[in-house]
Specification:
Structural class: little secondary structure
Radius of gyration: 26 Å
Number of strands: 2
Oligomer: single chain
Largest sheet: 2 strands, antiparallel
Distance between the termini: 76 Å
Number of helices: 1
Helix content: under 10%
Shape: elongated
Length: 69
């Protein structure tokens, strides 16, 4: 039989080790970003200069209906 290692007691009294805060690059905003995509870009959805967070516009093509339909 192999013996199992004893369970280690949880460390207490240490500061919480989480992600460092990321703030918006817009000088007027500077809010903390919580969304993973916003954290990667460095801009919140309202401040993003590329407007990647806005849904794509629907594209309509003006064409005649197909014959026989």
């Amino acid at each position: 039989m192999t013996s199992r290692p004893a369970r280690q007691a949880p460390l207490l009294g240490l500061p919480e080790q989480g992600r460092p805060p990321v703030y918006c690059r817009n000088p007027q905003c500077r809010r903390e970003l919580t969304d993973p995509a916003s954290r990667l870009r460095g801009y919140g959805p309202e401040c993003d200069p590329d407007n990647r967070t806005v849904p794509a516009r629907e594209h309509h093509v003006d064409q005649d209906p197909l014959p026989g339909t």
